[in-house]
Amino acid sequence: MSNLSILSGKTYFIRTFGCQMNLHDSERVSGLLDSCGCLVASSPADADIVIFMTCCVREAADTRLYGQCSSCKSLPASPSGKRVIAVGGCIAQRDGEGLLTNLDNVDVIFGTHSIAHVAELLADAFADGDHHVRVEEIDTGAATDMPWHRETAYHAWVPIMTGCNNFCSYCIVPYVRGREKSRPMDEIVDEVTGLVRQGVRSITLLGQNVNSYGRDHDHDPRFAELLRRVGDTGIERIYFTSSHPKDLLPETIDAMAEVPAVMPQLHLAVQSGSSRILKLMNRKYTREQYLDLVQRVRDRIPNIALTTDIIVGFPGETEEDFEQTVSLVDEAKFAQAFTFIYSKREGTPAAKIVDPTPRAVIQERFDRLVKHVEQTAFDFNQGSLDTTVPMLIEGTSKKDPNVLQGKSPWNQTVHCPVPAGVDPVTLIGKVIDVHVDTARTWYLAGASVGDAR
User: Residue 143 domain-assigned?
Assistant: First the structure.
């Protein structure tokens, strides 16, 4: 068994790429290292342990990892005189020991199902100076029992399930995160209840497809029931991601409308506005079905902020297919959309499709789409002009320390001046009402009304 005491006093730095699930995994790794007596470092140069938590959804992630690991070779000596480099997350799960072929300075590799063993792997690397790799194929669920180190006291990521059963033709996630596995509902509710006692005000429920929560246990999705039970814990704000359109049931929409703590924001990835491309993507819904779902959501929650993901340049996408995506964006009126150029991932069905479309054409389409997204985002924010929104304060603006920054219930970024004579640090995690007099594409701004609470 590893001698974990060797880690006591060691400094560590974690750099995270990718989705919210990776961010939460990093919090778990950080919590585990804290429990071993490790200390957080402000930069890789100050760290005895450097960990890269990786994402492999897009090709750029691999390039970034190789660059980051290579840059560690030129770092000054670590505080203890020995530095251990570790790679975790989805790229580690996908490539395993094969990463050592290109990353000769990496000491530890751990997959998405092995984060509970990070401390022992690191301790072994310090003890014997050898490479240590652990990539398990089955998720034991042990990571959810690990301690965690949250970046903020007012918000928490709460995983409700891992894995994905959808196998979209472009997506590597099911191959690196495994099949869907839901946490017991009572365990989740108990965790949120404990977070409320600790002063957490906002949570985000996490899963590759939260709408299918519970299906692996009871054959029928139980996400609507989970929302209602979590809403009864006293938590003030509930967000969740990600939602697959094919599994968003009427009872879930009802729960969103009826549970006060569920915020009026829904991320509903469409990926394309062309039914032909959606079929090639194996998304299991059509353009018409998606727009019908959007209308049903808005009928129950008229003021909802709808956000989405869109891929441009999927193999075989024509100008007509792309125009259908643009028109869907205009019709759905997204509050925000995350747009991506298709990235080929070896091992997925879409990687086998030959596409002669020039990169310049795809880039031009992407740029056109961004303009439409910016317009719908701007239009949505205009609805907040001359209204008062409650802002959960996250801190101050990076551009101006005299301006508070936070989030509205619709997950909009909000700015307002720091109240006179108040230390902004004391306001972090509190809520203050802001009367909005400026609405831009990506933020709202105004003056605070009343005291923070």
Answer: no
Q: Is residue 404 part of a domain?
A: yes
Task: Say if residues 41 and 13 touch (Cβ distance below 8 Å).
Answer: yes
Residue with tokens 């032909």: 276
Given 108, 134, 160, the domain boundary residue is 134
Let me know if residue 141 belongs to a domain.
no
Contact 312, 341 (CB under 8 A): yes
60 with 187, same domain: the answer is: no
- The more confident residue out of 148 and 373 is 373
What's the CA gap between 352 and 297, in Å, rounded? Answer: 36
Burial of 151 (0-12, 13-18, 19+ CB in 10 A): exposed
Integer Cα distance of 38 and 31 in angstroms: 9
CA distance 286 to 290: 6
- Indicate the average pLDDT of the chain: 91
Identify the CATH number of the domain in which residue 185 sits: 3.80.30.20
Residues 329 and 280 in one domain: yes
Q: How far is CA 54 from CA 27, 42, 155, 353, 443, in A?
A: 14, 19, 22, 26, 29
Residue 70 preceded by cis peptide, ω within 30: no
- Residue 195 φ then ψ, to 5°: -65, -40
260 and 207 in one domain?
Answer: yes
Q: In this model, does residue 274 exceed pLDDT 80?
A: yes
**Least confident range of 23-32, 278-287, 303-312:** 23-32
- How many CB atoms within 10 Å of residue 346? 9
Domain that holds residue 65: 4-134
- Give the Cα separation of 444 and 407 in Å (integer): 10
If one counts the domains in the chain, the total is 3
Count of C-beta atoms within a 10 Å radius of residue 399: 8
Strand partners, 40: 12
pLDDT of residue 59: 64
Collect all residues with Cβ–Cβ distance below 8 Å to 97 and sequence separation of at least 6: 109, 131, 133, 135
Q: 281 by DSSP, 3-state: which? A: helix
Query: Do residue 343 and residue 397 come from a single domain?
Result: no
Judge whether 171 is annotated as a binding position: yes
Question: Contact at 8 Å (CB) between 183 and 226?
Answer: no
Q: Confirm whether residue 168 is marked as ligand binding.
A: yes
DSSP 233-249: TT-SEEEEE-B-GGG--
Closest CA to 382 of 305, 299, 438: 438
- CATH code of 440's domain: 2.40.50
69 is in an annotated binding site: no
Place 271 in a pLDDT band, splitting at 50, 70 and 90: very high
